[in-house]
Queue: 3 jobs
Job 1
Amino acid sequence: MPFYPSVDPIPLPAPVWLLKLLHVVTLALHFVAVEMLLGGLLVAVVLSLFRSSPNASVAARALARRLSIVMTFVINLGVPPLLFAQVLYGRALYTSSVLIGVYWIAIVPVLMLTYWLLYRFAARLEAGKSAWWVGLLAWLLAGSIARTLSTNMTLMLRPEIWRQMYSASAMGRFLPSGDPTLTPRWLLMLAGGMFIAGLWLIYLSGRSTFTADEKKFAAGLGGKLAAGFGIVYLLAGLWAANVQPEAVKAGLAGQSVYPLYRLSGFAGYGWLALVGVAIVLGLVAGFGKIASAWLSWAGVLAAVLIEILFTVYRDGVRDLTLFSKGYDVWDRAVATNWSVVGLFLVLFVAGLGVIAWLVSVVARAQKVMEGAA
Ligand code: HEM
């Protein structure tokens, strides 16, 4: 192919379908954590401004306390999809990463600063000090990381501009321009953050560590956020889908060499439907101010399923875009080493088991009321 560096002569160690499956699962979980961070942080910042309202202060502190933990999930659930993406799309992804090298490398220090600010934000809230500016700074930095990731994930789909960018700077100093898909894609993630933050508050409203009054507050606010930003999220999704090239739209409708991508198209419809269901859930919780265990868990389930469907759709968009430009992700030499794949899967499942056990230990730990000083 004229555009892409030559393929690595070492064959893939596992079938493409397995690598893609693991990629989609881990990336969807990364997205759940990312959305909790982007949305939960902004909601906590706004709530922290209402210092005279005890309910708002308790909710702000409850979110802020959890954000540094959410960040560990953002990072740890970001590494596996990065590895799978490099294996499957390395020739495109490495190239785009080099072309925006300065910004791409900058993610690491910016991430460390964001992480530190999250701790400062929570500590200032616990101490009863004004903290909104610390949280806002952390949110702006996290939003800029999201922007860099969206920039890279869309630049990797535009081999036609790589040569010209490299000629302009071999140092990776410039950002690409002129891509109609970049901004809708980034805004979709930001809107999704507020929507998921609403579902997160609905989940929290079912926890026994809140008083009845605090639960009502969390359910009311969370429900309204989920319903309101659910609509914004839907509109942003439709916008992002609408600006995709015709070849991608046709492929998602099943008209491609790989009819399999019809599944991604269906995932898109599933996403629309489920966000719709979550909006109704938000309306019930928000206007009924109902805090109940079933609403809590329905919110969690909706959030995870919505991100899985979103990731399957997004995967189709990437593969079809690359395919229309001569990059076929399925066209790779594979020499599966089943013993290594087996060992990996055993460790993967064991790892999930350990996480489940950790969660159960936390769930059984002695409860401290959220509003306690
Ligand atoms: C504050 C921290 C972070 C934020 C806000 C964030 C946000 C995002 C967003 C918005 C996207 C989607 C971009 C798009 O397609 O438009 C994304 C994708 C991704 N992120 Fe993160 N991320 C963060 C940290 C990380 C870290 C630390 C890693 C890895 C170590 C990571 C790995 C990835 C990967 C691999 C993808 C895309 C994978 C793919 O498309 O195959 N992220 N992230």
Job 2
Amino acid sequence: MKFLCIPCDAVMEFAERQLPGDGTLAAIFACPKCAREMAMLTNPMETQLVSGLGIKVGGRTVPEQPLELATTSISGGRPDAFVEAPLAGSVTWSADAKDRLQNVPSFVRGMVKRIYTDYARERGIPEITPEIMDRARSDLGLEGM
Ligand SMILES: [Zn+2]
């Protein structure tokens, strides 16, 4: 990661770093030509992302925490949640249930479908109907999906 002073077309030099210990980080970069300064502030998660990419700030890495923890919680804990399962077991969707799935915004439809499919498969339910969807929603606390 580098910052460029646009008027000078010069790479800014790292000037100061603070690691208060709560995971936040403030770094000052200064232009060697015009002495313009800029500060980079990050919150704990961003600090983890930066350090997880192997970027050293000020010559010292931020204390390590597994990056996977951060990325997993960003994506909702299911790395494969956005991939529609090719194997849906023997679970089928009734026409009514499929219609209802169409009401789900397309960008989460695959994930929602997966949640319902998993729910049915885990309980040995062979066909997902609107009634099953209702039951899954209240069982899983997914009101509004
Ligand atoms: Zn400059």
Job 3
Amino acid sequence: MASSSSFPVLFLLLSCLALALLAKADEVHKHEFVVQETPVKRLCNEHHIITVNGQFPGPTLEVREGDTLEINVINRAQYDVTIHWHGIRQLRTPWADGPEFVTQCPIKPGESYKYRFTIKGQEGTLWWHAHSSWLRATVYGALIIRPREGKAYPFAKPSREVPVILGEWWNANPVDVIREAQRTGGAPNVSDAFTINGQPGDFLPCSQKETTAIPVKPGETALLRFINAALNHELFVSIAQHKMTVVGVDASYTKPFTTDVLMIAPGQTTDVLVTMDQPPTRYYVAARAYVSAQGVGFDNTTTSAIIEYDCGCATGFGPKIQPAVPALPAFNDTAAATAFAAGIKSPEKVKVHDHADEYLFFTVGLGLFNCEPGQLCAGPNNNTRFTASMNNVSFVFPKTDSLLHAHYYKVPGVFTTDFPAYPPVQFDYTAQNVSSALQQPVPATKLYPLRYGSVVRLVLQDTSIVTPENHPIHIHGYDFFILAQGFGNFDHEKDIKKFNLVDPPQRNTVAVPVNGWAVIQFVADNPGVWLMHCHLDVHITWGLAMAFLVEDGYGELQSLPPPPVDLPMCK
Ligand SMILES: [Cu+2]
């Protein structure tokens, strides 16, 4: 009796078990990241840099969508450090995001912190980097997210996948460089070279032997995962005699489009397919700066790696063959940067709200503080100090607590929630000469509160104060759609007609056009405190940042979890 009625239940249970065994469970990847000083030789000299596990670039993390990462960061260096998992949505794991004094206090020398988070709904290339002072100059690595088991890429499976990380090399200690600039109020020095996977390449002294090689087979299609990890330069990238088909940016797929040149801003990633359809020899991948600011110093070097066809041919093949050199756009070729940005679209029609709950307008740009008695003032005219702001607020990071901790425990006096929704004074933002009265922002720690689930439409407007410049604006904890971009002052009446509500690209970092604007939109579905900032490190240091405070929704799944027990405190 009992057996006959329980049979269907038992059968169901067994089938569920079989299914569960067949579908491989989401994995938990455990890693140990030891932050430490490491000797390396670059540009003819030995240097002591800060690395993770002695590797430069640091370890590549490879996961599938749905997996969990558990990374124990142990600080054996002499500096405070935090690690940020750039582009990871961190849904309900805001304590693992990493920016110093925003979601945690720094990990002190000798201490450790375990970052634990799950990757949901994101596939492609992201990366991780230090989010403390200028340590990310050498503390960075790739974070590759493949589709879950049994799910394919939305393009033919490439026969080879190669992370190509663009960086900046400094002969000086980058932490000293920014400390000196903060002391004097002047602009920091620029890098001495760019790097590909940590190597400056053939065009720089004492670098030829170590130039990054990318071996390929004739006829195959490779997926190159470009990451711009440079501190302060946007970069053009080309490959000699090869077209690139862009298939993803910032771990969101794109409508494939073919191009000779990429423009990648710091914080951004670009996945491209390259078919090795040229005569089997050697070709340079090269990158150099896109510089939109006027009258500022920049690193004018070119970094290179070499794509080496394995032709199975031949004596004489190999290092003796001089690789073909690609044409790169001029340093100030804004048209090339604009054309590239215009090519990036979501693969299909996406769900974009045609109205928002919050209409925000933030100016982004530089500024100057007047010299106060007792200060060094190495800014323009030797009587100013450089600064930067959003909506005339120059962001000041707290020192005694992190913003998220202060929010969770309602600690008063750490921040205020009155970041302005609009510029306090409206003016001709992109005029040739903005009145000097408008150049001096107000230093403060202001957050903008967002109701859980609200649709946020945000205009980011560059200003010409000091100099107009393309600013790569990055939001933590969110991807957003870029509805439109343009030049001049954003005009609501006219420019709304340019909005793409069909297949706008989805990103975590938008390169706001020089003397122009970008309109982005996202749904505030992730409670926490989320930093938004310029990803040129010199600008975030000067205050080109703010943070959103996304309130809890209803119920446990829409609320902030308590902090992990090992969350570093400021003490
Ligand atoms: Cu900037």
